[in-house]
Design a protein that fits this description.
single chain; Pdz3 Domain; GIPC1/2/3; 2 helices; 7-stranded mixed sheet; two-stranded antiparallel ribbon; 11 strands; mainly beta; 223 residues; GIPC1-3_GH1
Length: 223
């Protein structure tokens, strides 16, 4: 993402133009050197404006002037009057928790940004009966790691309240907010087998009528 420059000032009405640059009335035009065309002034870059909504439902907002994920979250938060720390992740062109539409490093001009914010908190107890839990973890680049995929038939897949899109907030009451996804994956991998542990998860806020309460089976497809 790149910051877009501001438009230059428009010339005053009635002032003469030379290659798009306003001149004072009565000022003679500067002749170009013989055989060398006058250089063209740089074109002002257009302001890139993107549309955004909260995934669980909100009016449409407009944001611009961000260069990284943290600035993007700050812009979205400003539009909707929330804290940037409320945003778990963003998807493009769908309000659903669809990891195929997860916002990455590129945003197209026609892309509509949906921000998924903190919903209910839930705790689950897991017993590690195998070396792998069956989780693929990613992070939003701003301090929250969350579940991107759940392997079918895995330990986690058998726990219906754990969903794709859930943010992992703590492992055994040890907060992991601020950790990168590979750090969280390492912590889970190093947990001893046959010893139960607790995951504190935060699920994205649901739109009215959508399933996904604290004890309801997860409607997200495991992978």
């Amino acid at each position: 993402m790149r910051r877009v420059g501001k438009h230059g000032r428009q010339a005053q009405e009635g002032s003469p133009m030379e290659n798009g640059v306003g001149q004072e009335p009565g000022t003679p035009e500067s002749p170009a050197a013989e055989g060398i065309p006058a250089p063209r002034p740089p074109r002002a870059r257009p302001r890139l404006v993107f549309h955004t909504q909260l995934a669980h439902g909100s009016p449409t907002g407009r944001i611009e002037g961000f260069t990284n994920v943290k600035e993007l979250y700050a812009k979205i938060a400003e539009v909707f009057g929330i804290s940037p720390t409320e945003i778990l992740f963003c998807t493009l062109n769908t309000h659903k928790v669809d990891m195929q539409k997860l916002l990455g490093g590129q945003i197209g001009l026609e892309d509509f940004i949906f921000a998924h914010v903190r919903g209910e908190t839930k705790e689950v107890e897991v017993t590690k009966t195998e070396d792998a839990l069956g989780l693929t973890i990613t992070d939003n680049g701003a301090g929250y790691a969350f579940i991107k995929r759940i392997k079918e038939g895995s330990i986690i897949n058998r726990i219906q309240t754990v969903c794709v899109g859930d943010s992992i907030e703590a492992i055994n009451d040890h907060t992991i907010v601020g950790c990168r996804h590979y750090e969280v994956a390492r912590m889970l991998r190093e947990l001893p087998r046959a010893q139960p542990f607790t995951l504190r998860l935060v699920q994205p806020k649901k739109a009215f009528g959508e399933s996904g309460g604290g004890v309801s089976p997860c409607s997200c497809p495991g992978e």
